[in-house]
Design a protein that fits this description.
alpha/beta; Rossmann fold; 2 domains; 4-stranded parallel β-sheet; 11 strands
């Protein structure tokens, strides 16, 4: 198939998403049949509107600078294509003679890639379609971990380390709300740098465990009696026994283009939790309990201190997607598979788009320790991914 390749980025940006973009470009350089490499501005929206840029004319030095820059260099999108939208995407492919379609993103992005691929097949339009994984939530099926997660986990771990030391200096209750809609991998990273029994986070609240307010308040009270303070890692996606996201209820139902509740666009969850704890744990007539809350927010995604392993694997995922096309594969998603723990090693594998698209991976039970903690197995799984970490000095 003689024609052009198009590459897009979708969903939340990450610290290493541009590594995957550059990886695809590098992988396509020796591909027969590829006339031009085009970048979509703001994902498939750019393809539909004709906002495309040449990527194959960039020199290696410029590509390397882009690769090492956080956030989506092409711009991203939250658009959720329906049947009519996909028809317009396919028309854009035909108009620009696109025969190789690469989409870098998470669950919803993989579903977009699947829909475009199926529509192209149904209409008899010859085109390769490949999904390149990306999400800080680490919730893609078939992957040991996903590009973007390790860098976000690195940020979360260090943010909690510093905040734990602050909380120890001026004791009280401190709540930090962490991203991760339905998966607790990222909030679990908050526990990576604990060194002593009294180090926080003392409670790690994940979406995979039912969040019961009475139990939670009791655990905070117990922590205060033991250590005189309590640091809490709270996932934005914690749910009650009926599966309702606590944060979504407090934020009053705002949703994004995919119909997902906007859990990170407000400090409501942390603020409301702080109010509950202050009200329920302050003695009648006593001094109000010192409770503070922060929402880590978008800085988790694109903090410019990427994990070296994350950057390397994100680049490899893009190169591997291009390799699949050159080897004659028609479609698929790239998955990172761990092959060794000590020393750490991984490899890229092709999986079916239908195995990933619109599906959610959750933390396995052996990564959790009760309702408010992560296990040693999780910490050991995470440790090699984040790169060198600081060690606190003690007096």
């Amino acid at each position: 198939m003689q024609g052009n390749a198009v590459i897009g980025q979708s969903g939340g940006p990450t610290a290493v998403i541009n590594q995957s973009l550059v990886g695809v470009v590098e992988g396509l350089r020796s591909a027969q049949g590829v006339e031009k490499m085009l970048g979509m501005r703001h994902g498939v929206r750019g393809l539909v509107s004709g906002e495309l840029v040449r990527l194959d004319t960039m020199d290696q030095a410029a590509l390397d600078r882009v690769a090492n820059t956080p956030s989506a260099a092409l711009g991203s999108t939250r658009d959720k294509p329906d049947g009519a939208y996909c028809e317009r995407i396919l028309e854009g492919c035909k108009k620009h003679n696109v025969r190789q379609f690469f989409y870098i993103g998470g669950n919803d992005s993989s579903d977009t890639c699947r829909l475009v691929n199926e529509l192209a097949k149904q209409s008899g339009y010859d085109m390769h379609c490949f999904h390149v994984p990306k999400t800080i939530d680490n919730d893609l099926m078939k992957n040991d971990h996903t590009p973007g997660f390790a860098s976000a986990a690195r940020y979360v771990a260090m943010a909690f380390m510093g905040d734990n030391l602050d909380n120890a200096s001026i004791p009280g209750v401190k709540i930090n709300v962490v991203m991760g809609r339905h998966a607790g991998f990222l909030v679990g990273a908050s526990a990576l740098l604990r060194e002593r029994e009294d180090d926080g986070p003392h409670l790690v609240c994940v979406p995979e465990r039912t969040f019961d307010m009475d139990t939670f308040v009791g655990r905070v009270e117990d922590c205060m009696s033991r250590f005189g303070r309590c640091q809490i890692a709270l996932s934005e996606g914690v749910q009650d026994k009926d599966g309702n996201a606590i944060g979504a209820t407090l934020i009053a139902g705002d949703t994004d283009a995919h119909g997902n509740a906007q859990l990170s666009g407000s400090g409501a969850l942390g603020d409301q939790m702080a109010m509950v704890l202050k009200k329920r744990l302050t003695p009648v007539g006593g001094t109000p309990l010192r409770v503070r809350a922060d929402t880590l927010g978008y800085q988790q995604r694109c903090y410019p201190d990427a994990s070296p392993i994350d950057a390397q694997e994100a680049r490899q995922a893009g190169v591997f997607a291009a390799k699949l096309m050159k080897n004659g594969e028609r479609d698929g998603s790239v998955a990172i598979v761990r092959t060794s723990d000590a020393p750490y090693a991984s490899e890229m594998q092709r999986v079916e788009l239908t195995d990933v698209a619109a599906k959610t991976r959750h933390m396995p039970d052996d990564f959790l320790d009760g309702d408010f903690n992560v296990s040693d197995a999780f910490i050991e799984w995470l440790r090699p991914l984040v790169g060198p970490m600081p060690v606190a000095g003690r007096v």
